[in-house]
Amino acid sequence: MSHSKPENAQPEHAQAEHESQKPVSSLEQAKLEDEKKSDPEATKLPSSRTEPGDECCHYQPDPDELAFLKQQTRIQDEEELKVHVFAVQKKAYKVCPYPCIRRFGFVRIKIIKNPAAYNHVLELGRTLPGALFLDVGCCFGIDLRRLANDGFPVQNMLACDIRKGFVNPLRISDDFWDLGHELFRSTAESFPVAFLAGDVFDPAFLTLQAPATEAPQSPAPNLDSLASLEGLQGHLSAIHSASLFHLFGEVNQLQLARKLAGLLSARPGSIIFGCHGAQPTKGHVLGSRGKYMFCHSSETWREMWEGIFEQGSVEIATHMKNVGKLLNPTTDFYMLFWSVKRL
Length: 343
Ligand SMILES: C[S@@+](CC[C@H](N)C(=O)[O-])C[C@H]1O[C@@H](n2cnc3c(N)ncnc32)[C@H](O)[C@@H]1O
Known about the structure:
Blueprint: H1 14-17, H2 24-36, H3 63-73, H4 78-95, H5 99-102, H6 115-127, E1 133-136, H7 142-149, E2 157-161, H8 176-184, E3 194-197, E4 238-242, H9 250-263, E5 271-278, E6 283-286, E7 292-295, H10 298-308, E8 314-328, E9 331-342
Parallel strand pairs: 1-2, 1-4, 2-3, 4-5
Antiparallel strand pairs: 5-9, 6-7, 8-9
Helix pairs in contact: 4-8
S-adenosylmethionine is lined by residues 42, 98, 100, 105-106, 110, 137-139, 161-162, 166, 176, 199-201, 242-244, 247.
């Protein structure tokens, strides 16, 4: 059950609240920075723990995911495949000890769990020449790989992740995208999806622009020549994000949504979709390591998008699934699968 934070909870904005002497602009910045760190558990490195631990029970690819892993890696023996996946997981854990790394979330295919949106994107890939797709917070890129495998043109796909250094006290030089190549046994040549490293909150990487109301004046930049998401505003036909929004507090979830909305093409049928943690009632939920996580409900998530796009200009779909007591032994955790499509 979601709830207000108890009094003994660590305030999410503690740092910003203590910095009230700062000028307003830097206080606002501090709030944004603090919110970005409000991640329930994902950004918290367990003290001196640099190994994923004995959590092999979390390696549970479903038959479809197992078949996809076998096809991509060309490793047919399931024990050999497991050894391979575990070896990459160990390296990834040193880059950033996300729960999704610890729990092998990187072998779970999420993009297909939104079947209407997914089929619509495949259709865009088949029928709309130059339709561009972006996966934000792609990690190893399993969702991009599935989409490419199902026929979306690889040259029109773009991957983005903050990669190195987000929480990387060991300064390991590997990053998730390169580890994705290792996991799926691909190379930049065999899987030539353009990858951009950057923080979506960083204005140097992506400035906030209002949702486009008409086609952009200039053609879309060449994806291979990009150093940031800047210049793509109004050009993207499909944007996907899985397990990204829930890393942030309410202010930054809105900020992220507005930034993604600014990237979306004005063309009817353009779509933003994905999934992340949610609760039946908006509020904070206790994470697995004592930190609180902000969760929207289906209703407040819908209201948020309605406030971003002009009234009546988008169709919003949501579907919430109880995925069990993932974060702590007493609280049910829910995944919200959602899409926002231009009408
Ligand atoms: C929980 S993982 C989910 C990964 C993948 N989408 C999936 O579902 O398996 C969140 C991903 O978002 C990335 N990320 C976190 N903060 C980010 C930011 N500010 N900008 C871009 N990527 C970010 C992380 O590095 C990580 O790969």
